[in-house]
Specification:
By secondary structure, the protein is α+β, with helices and mostly antiparallel strands. Helices cover about 35% and strands about 20% of the residues. α3 packs antiparallel against α4. Bound molecules: zinc ion.
């Protein structure tokens, strides 16, 4: 497999030498791949603009010893165009790219579900049909679930006692009953827990109708959940703007 073709999302680029870039891609079949795109920083480059973050590309790569070489790139979706120019979309999208990279920490390990979630999340973000913070939180909950860290929002995460329960514990895995409730558990509004469940299941009619104060509370719990599981905070999550007026 010296020459191979795949589709992927550009997660990140880094300068390399005078004119090249190292491109980090999350691909459909080959997991996370790092490859050199030669000459892309020259103005006459054939594919420079196609290998920017958020781009959904069809790419041909030559397998190298450490880094692969990008030999062809075709744009499938230029999500960057409608994401980069809008601050709320951009910060949400950046957090999604960063999370995708963190959740696929082993290079070349296929992660097709993470790939499909990211493509779907970026498509929703670019389409602008839902508030960017909701798209981000839905993506984060689902990508954590795919990674094996699905939170529970109804039955007790520890003993399985039927819910709904008032207490929510990030370390405990979600909703917790009065008997299992660890010290320091949160007590979110029932509407917030309903919003979180709708984001995980993809029930957008509930999510789109939620109030700003419940969105803010849900976002805080999702961020705490992500940070707990990834062990250190995502830099870009702190930049995500929560501009919704007080609800
Ligand atoms: Zn319990």
């Amino acid at each position: 497999m010296s020459l191979y073709r795949d589709e992927g999302i550009v997660l990140r680029t880094q300068k390399l030498g005078e004119a090249d870039r190292i491109v980090t891609l999350l691909t459909r079949r080959n997991g996370r791949v790092r490859a050199v795109a030669k000459g892309v920083r020259r103005t006459k480059s054939r594919f420079g603009a196609r290998v920017e973050p958020f781009a959904h590309v069809d790419v041909q790569l030559h397998q190298g010893r450490s880094l692969d070489i990008v030999t062809q790139v075709e744009t499938i979706d230029a999500f960057g165009g409608s994401v980069v120019g809008d601050y709320a979309r951009y910060t949400a999208g950046t957090a999604m790219l960063e999370t995708a990279e963190r959740l696929t920490d082993v290079e070349r390990e296929p992660a097709v579900q993470q790939y499909l979630l990211l493509v779907g999340g970026l498509r929703a973000l670019a389409a602008g049909e839902h508030e960017p913070g909701l798209v981000l939180d839905a993506y984060l909950l689902r990508s954590l679930a795919v990674a094996g860290w699905a939170p529970t929002f109804t039955d007790c995460a520890r003993c399985g006692a039927p819910g709904p329960h008032r207490a929510f514990s990030v370390a405990g895995g979600g909703a917790v009953c009065p008997d299992c409730r660890p010290p320091g558990s949160a007590s979110p509004a029932p509407e917030t827990v309903e919003l979180l469940a709708s984001l995980l299941s993809g029930d957008w009619s509930v999510a789109d109708g939620s109030l700003p104060r419940h969105r803010r509370e849900a976002a805080g719990l999702v961020a705490a959940f992500v940070q707990y599981h990834l062990e250190r905070g995502l830099r870009s999550l702190r930049l995500v703007e929560r501009t919704a007026p007080a609800g």
